[in-house]
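Fold this sequence, please.
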Amino acid sequence: MNKSKENVVFITGATSGIGKACAEVFARNGHPLVITGRRSERLTEIKRGLTEKYGIEMASLSFDIRDPKACDLAWNSLESKWRTPDLLINNAGLAKGLTPIHQGSLEHWETMIDTNIKGLLYITRLISPGMVERKRGHIINVCSTAGHETYPMGNVYCATKHAVNALTNSMRLDLYTHGIKVGQVSPAHVEETEFAVNRFDGDEEKGDIYSDFNPLKSNDVAEAIYFIYTRPAHVNIQDILMMGTQQAGSNFIHRSGRIY
């Protein structure tokens, strides 16, 4: 089902990985986009590439989603035509560190909590009132299999994604009577992202964790998000839990080589 090509899609964390892949998929299908992230040069590059390739309208906002004042200033800087998104994709998120709880870094913990939970809340608080007023809209949060189960040394990251899962369900209860859909996608390992390298503070050797199996690709997740959004008006997909064929859970990966 094709949504109206006039429907604005707002994507957080669009400078890489799943967010960037979402921008590509929705641009390819003709949707005007607002893309956000901290790296302004990367946003400008993505915006230029997608507008030239697909001829769509786009706006970009460079700010730190962890800062509520920065979120507010960015949102209020938009022209009015961009301030009525039909779809909000709360994608911005990250993992930092992989250590047992008694050795964890407070800085890592705060970064994950401020980005994965509070950043999602700040943006949702800015955009959802307009959806309620219009009696229409869709919010899709990027959760994780870590929001459904835990794994050793994943402690705080798993906690933040469990919070995303809970917020998705709670937001739906708050908003469904206003005609607003709320759902999420929960992927396992995904390559073509900066997730693993960021987790290890830029250490590419430690972040090379996909060489012996085939994980999901960022586009796989973006296509799932597009599927959720394009269901008929009476259908709300609440969650898509997805993994590569060689993965059966956070703790079960068949590292037998890249066979697919």
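The chain is about 40% helix and 15% strand. The first strand starts at residue 9 and ends at 11.
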